[in-house]
Model the fold of this input.
Amino acid sequence: MSNKFEIQQELADAQNELTRLCHKEAKKADGQKITATITIKPRYGKAMNDLREKCSQLRMILDAMEASED
Done:
């Protein structure tokens, strides 16, 4: 079983990767010249959803670890 520090580090890494993908996705949309309504089709949607789920699970683990310390 991983210790709390390793889980916190894994969470930070996943959050950083999610932020990077979000910025990359936004930058792609910003580079387009808009003359009409556009539909943005996410290129990294699955990866971003997977990372959000991973972050959520890691937060739940950390919350459970903190609750068990009380």
The mean pLDDT is 86. The radius of gyration is 17 Å.
